[in-house]
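DM from R.C. (forwarded with permission)

"hey, sorry to bug you on a friday — could you get me a structure for this? deadline for the figure draft is monday and I only need the backbone to look sensible"
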Amino acid sequence: MDQELYSALKKGKPHTVEKLIQEHLARSWFLCQETTMDSAMAVPLLLSSWERALAACREDTPPAAGSFLELLSGEVLAGYLDGVEPDGDWADLPEPQLPHKYRLCSAELRAVSPDRRPVYLAHTLGGSSIRALAEVIGSSYEETEDLIKRAEREVIESHGSMDKTQRAALVRLFTEFKSPQSEAFQQMEVPQRLEDALRHQLQLRPGAVQRPAQKPARQPAAPKAAPKPGKESKSGAKKPASAPAKPTVHKPARQPFPVGKVAAICVVAVAVALLAVVLYQRLGVSAQAASVTTYEVAAVSYGDVDTTISGSGTLSPVSQDTLTAAAPVTLTAVNYAAGDAVESGTVLATGEDELGETVDYTAPYDCVLLEVPAAAGDTLAAGEEVAMVMGKDGFTMGIAVDEQDIALIEVGQEASFTIDAIEDGEEITGSISQVSYNGSSNGSATAYQITAKIAYVEGVYPGMSASAQIVVEESGEGLLVPMEAVQTSGDENYVYLAPGDGEEGAEYEEEDIDLSALTQVTVEAGDSDGSYMLVECDDLSEGDLILVPHLTSTAAGSGSGDSGGMGGFGGSFPGGMDFGDFDFSNFDPSTMPQGGSFPGMSS
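My reply, with the result:
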């Protein structure tokens, strides 16, 4: 963070906070609204996030890395994942309205799946780094990076049938929209009621500094002066007693609010709560997680775990031309109709010009007629269309490739096409014909356009939808088993054959399986795509049934020590929050549900 800003916040200068409100309130309101999709949740999230971000600025030594906006967006994501209690007083607050120029940008953001959108928003609109986001969501850098990349691919794929010019224009607009100096938020009107509520929350004088082009200041609509009794947040704000203190990007642990804000709680209770938080965050006091294993029966399959890059789009003919009248002409004959295939030089239509001379319109190459809008007897002016033709030299399709993958693509590489309109779904082999080195950035990542080509296929027409897959690393084919099925002991890898009465898809509880009574088969492990692994084994065949263990963490009481997956959040927490049988050991951040709760969680 800028040293001057940091010093001013450390000294508690109100004017500095007012300046931050002018610069970032509109953007943070939009960020909270898009994250929660509910005004009754967006406003409480905004108020608490600003409070925690400013508390972190005052308390962190040295200053937090990144800008205040990055710090604030991290707090928005952390607060959302912790769970937001809706406040009905804000349910009627209108949603943020972007200037007309930027309305398409909302569609760009909402093209991302709801389970990835909160993290994507914090990254793109808030500028939070992947490393900071990984800490907030309790995941690895690689998993968080993959989550962001998948969200970016969803945005790119949402462009659908746009041509290159349209796509480039939208990328430029979206890049401008997400810029820290974006006019979209400078021009967006923020309700005075919301501004005043934020100043009240931050203990500033209402209306001290007005944003440009805003309505005159008026009294806030009964904002809550203090949180409800019985709750304590990460920064000292009240929160359900059962909620865990979730680690965030900003450390050390934050101090409580001034005593005046928690007058309903006696000093002794505050001290006890603080001590519990400090012990939990600093000394690792948490629940001891018990491991419960269930088993699923799966079949050995045959295939590969090739590394591929895929994309979808619409097909365009390699060659396409429109035949037009060079001068006024009256058609005397039209010999073919749309859909007919003809050879190069075939006379498609004949006419007579103003001098009475005969004019022939011939096929420029082997082609299919796409349009024949004219008929015999029609008089055409100069430039009017006689016919539109498509060459039989094949089709092309553009594919957007992420900057992380573009180095793996080269001209001539094989690509497999699947065309939706072909009923049997037969794959058509093509190749990469062009790679563009002029990328298009959306502010957080850059995509490069490549062109794949296939030969002419009868019955396929321009504009049909297709998908393409490019194998960039081949694994070879062999027996495939789920990754979890492969167990390791020393240098030996093995799998368990399923019980004799097992059927594919059957599930067993731990107490129902006696591993010592099952057949253990040694396998040689090969390549993996993260879900399946290639194995070599003379004692296994395609279709054989094996046992796949699934390890789950559950609560087993309080204590010290390692608390399991997701950044130390396995098991139960002080206050009695129970995560049921949620599998933290196999937590995938892309499956984060909207609203901040997880399957099996109760309090």
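R.C.: lifesaver. Residues 115 and 428 are 34 Å apart (CA to CA).
me: no worries. Residues 14-36 form the longest helix (23 residues).
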